[in-house]
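Box 3.1 A note on notation
Throughout this textbook, protein chains are presented in two layers. The first layer is the amino acid sequence; the second is a token string describing backbone geometry. Keep the layers aligned when reading.
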Amino acid sequence: MSLRIPPAKVFFPDEDRRVILDEIDEALASGQLTLGKHVKLFEESFAQKVGTQYAVAVNSGTSSLEIPLRIFNVRDKTVLVPTNTFFATPAAVIHAGGRPRFIDVDLRTFAIGLQEIQRRITEDTAGVIVVHIAGIVTPEMPAIREFCQQRGLFLLEDAAHAQGSSLSNQSAGSFGDAASFSFYPTKVMTSAEGGMIVTNRKDVYEEALVYRDQGKGDFYSNFHTRLGYNWRMSEPHAIIGRTQLARLDEFIAARNRIARIYDQELADVPGITTLPLPPDCRSNYYKYLVLLDDPDDRKEFKRTLREDYGVGLSGEVYDTPCHLQPVFAEFSAGDFPIAADVCARHVCLPVHAAMKVEEAQFVVSSISKSFKSLLEGTLV
């Protein structure tokens, strides 16, 4: 069925499409289709935006996780990973030779906190991955960073959701030893497919350049020094990404306008709870999260919004925690009550850069009517 309000939408202004097509045509004419000037420009612009010294463009957010983990040498060691994250986060640990050790999260931020890190750390723990779910940067980041430094642990930020987010004016991606970004089409900015590693460590930067290109010590040689892979970003993808990066602040401002409408108009709707941002956190609102009072309502609530009002809700982040995923069964030891709760009760409201105020107001009205019917027991 056709939706009146889609859950998400990729946005390319007309003038940007013209620029992209012109620059891709120039790249096709030149014959330089990978690791050329556009990749370099994208890397330089992204590093400047995040506030790090270095950035390395790769073919996906997944590879932007695995490459740093290989550099940090997690083989036969454990890495602390929140259980409410995408498959790629713990999978990258395994592909790099390590073992994910899952950890529970905080109800307010959907992120891991220092107390849980201290509780789950073991002698063979090599490092910690903090995931900025929905573009929210936990206020515990400085304390987590200090603890990791004291204990000799690496800190890797999975910032796949957090392009342009910040805490106390410090950008997501600039807190740890390295950070991973994704530019998948659903993200706040996209390169169609692609990812970026950012870091202030020269050694991580230099190693990442080697790993992304089949482990070659030099782009023009076949002398391999690392067991790398084809993790390169193409020139067309970099062209798309750099054009979107130039719009990032504009996109985030538009998403924040929609979020403020949700904040104000959903505050008194029974059956649903909005999540205020932590102090000093600037979210990009990759997702707008709300919690349902009753997890049993979610399926019917989503169905009614879609079928009766034409409002689509985007996928949860995430509905099944990793410790309950069959593929991670051997790593699932532990009890994670908060993650289980938030995974079961949350939904993500529509938000995108081209969304209009009246569309957000229609979403609010539809939610209010749906919950009124739900509480009266008239949903069918």
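The chain has twelve helices and 13 strands. The first helix runs from residue 14 to 30.
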